[in-house]
Amino acid sequence: MHTNWEDLRLFLAVAREESLSGAGKLLRLDPATLGRRMARLEEGLQATLFAKSPQGYALTDAGAELLARAEVAEQAMRAATAGLPVPSGRLTGQVRIGAPDGAANFLLPQVCAAIARDNPDLDIQIVALPRVFNLSRREADMAIGVSAPTAGRLVVQKVTDYKLHLAAAQTYLDRNPAPESLADLKAHRLVGYIPDMIFDRELDYLSEMGIGRVPLASNSVSVQINWIRQGGGIGVAHDFSLPATPGVRRILMDQVSLRRAFYLIRHADDQRNLRLSRFAEDLAGGLRAEVARLEALA
Predict the structure, then answer these.
(1) Which end of the chain is more exposed for a tag (fewer CB within 10 A), N or C?
(2) SS3 for 112-177, per residue?
(3) 3-class SS of residue 298
(4) Strand 216-217 to 190-192 pairing
(5) Cα torsion at 153, 159, 161, 162 (round to 10°)?
(6) Where are the domains of the chain?
(7) Parallel, antiparallel or unpaired: strands 234-238 and 190-192
(8) Superfamily covering domain 161-258
(9) Beta carbons within 8 Å of 39's beta carbon, 6+ residues apart
(10) 139-158, pLDDT tens digit by residue?
């Protein structure tokens, strides 16, 4: 049987996601259709590629062997198109960005909207997840991270620093005495991350302040910001989020001032891809400018 690239592309998604549903979401294909395609591929190759169970699709030895060959083909396809010039100077196709939800909610929409206006045939997808993205599994074309990974065949570029401070809604401060020191926080309801769901040590803000109990906790920055905005308590907020949250102001600025950084992370195989490199350049420049603009308004 002749195995074409489309067969391999679908196989790669199922192998990496280890499920039809996960691969279907990535490919925008119905899982049942994807299952039929995999069955047809197995039939054509006269090999069982997956051990199927309620837990998902696990590769067999034959599947692992095909995965190695398929990844070689994937790299060859990327290399074949990497050096093609961008028609009319405009970007086309699809780009998927993985990002922590703070950046995904308060920065990327406006930055990517500007890029999209200049490139009307470009499709941009933002995957907002509170975890580290696996670019080796091609979960995204590139990712924004809050720390620089040291493992894997990745290219890492520091994009910009950003600031964070303790913040509270004026409605909360109207009902409770404003803290004058870190010690006073013990008398307040705090908002922060669920401790055992912090996916990067750079996000463990409250423990740096010696705070253990977090009465209002979420793995989502957006939920935390909304809790603060609704007067639920005091929490750490990105300065760039504050212009979007009227009624919230920074407190204890002379005692707590945090600085973190965003990194743009790409797969090493994509370095020569002119389209993705051009997009990465526009994205990094837009993020730097937007963080500076919003922090000046905070």
Answers:
(1) N
(2) HHHHHHHCCCEEEEEEECCCCCCHHHCCCCEEEECCCCCCCCEEEEEEEEEEEEEEEEHHHHHHCC
(3) coil
(4) parallel
(5) -100
(6) 5-82, 91-160+261-297, 161-258
(7) parallel
(8) Periplasmic binding protein-like II (3.40.190.10)
(9) none
(10) 788 999 998 887 777 889 99
Domain 91-160+261-297 sits in CATH 3.40.50.10240: no
Do 91-160+261-297 and 161-258 agree at the fold level? yes
Tokens representing residue 144 in the block: 């924004």
239 confidence band (pLDDT: 50, 70, 90): very high
If you average pLDDT over every residue of the chain, what do you get?
88
| CATH level 3 topology of 5-82 | Arc Repressor Mutant, subunit A (1.10.10)
Give the span between the Cα atoms of 85 and 87, in whole angstroms: 6
pLDDT, one tens digit per residue, over 171-211 is 999 999 999 999 999 999 999 999 888 888 888 888 888 88
Distance of CA 262 to the CA centre of its chain: 11
DSSP string, 42-78: HHHHTS--EEEETTEEEE-HHHHHHHHHHHHHHHHHH
Q: Read off the pTM.
A: 0.71
